[in-house]
Specification:
single chain, mainly alpha, 3 domains, two-stranded antiparallel ribbon
């Protein structure tokens, strides 16, 4: 059992919630099914057992919530749904969480709960979840592209260093220039180039400004 809790002061309680939020994805990544329980009038299970006994603690365990319920409840507590702007933020943040669920049944169930809580239609909530899913996919694709750019750039810099460090006779130098010219100029003008130094560029810019391609 992992315990993230302190005395009943609000600051300690919020710190415990943040710690639990960080721990949940790490635990699920290694195959641990996460359930969350909230203890009142005790700072940890040992104190709770001493004060209230095993039967009360067993009941507390039975009433514990799964991690999605816990996270949605944490989101709900952040907003005043009587205010329209805050209601929109509540729905958007809830949708960001729900769209990460792999089960379509889970997405359906929790979308319905959030829709009922905010008093909106299920269709509207599904639409918001779909939008959140598309945003998440776009972020993941962008991250994957940036990671690939970084890897290719590092490789290009390594290769460039080896070329610079090598001694080429005039014939080899011309062969290298000819190879670059033939391959680069054959690409579409909008093709992005990762030179291994400086900023990312494209074929059109290099053809116009790079003297070694002529």
């Amino acid at each position: 059992m992992y315990v993230f809790h302190g005395p009943e002061q609000q600051a300690c309680d919020e710190a415990g919630q943040r710690a639990a939020q960080r721990a949940i994805p790490m635990l699920e990544k290694v195959g641990i099914q996460v359930k969350v329980l909230r203890m009142r009038d005790a700072k940890d299970p040992d104190e709770f057992l001493k004060k209230f006994g095993a039967d009360r603690f067993k009941l507390l365990l039975e009433e514990s919530s799964n991690r999605v319920e816990y996270q949605l409840n944490a989101i709900f507590k952040k907003y005043d749904l009587r205010d329209d702007d805050q209601k929109v933020k509540y729905l958007q943040e809830s949708a960001e969480l729900i769209c990460t669920l792999s089960s379509s049944v889970q997405r359906e169930v929790y979308s319905g709960r959030v829709a009922d809580t905010a008093k909106i239609s299920m269709d509207s909530m599904k639409l918001e979840v779909n939008r959140a899913f598309k945003r998440r996919i776009a972020r993941e694709k962008k991250k994957a592209l940036n990671d690939a750019k970084d890897e290719i750039s590092s490789l290009a810099m390594e290769i460039a260093g080896k070329v610079v460090g090598a001694t080429l006779d005039p014939a080899q130098q011309q062969q290298l220039v000819d190879s670059l010219t033939q391959k680069v100029l054959a690409l579409p003008a909008e093709t992005m180039l990762l030179p291994g130094h400086g900023e990312v560029t494209n074929v059109a810019f290099e053809c116009e400004h790079n003297p070694y391609l002529f």
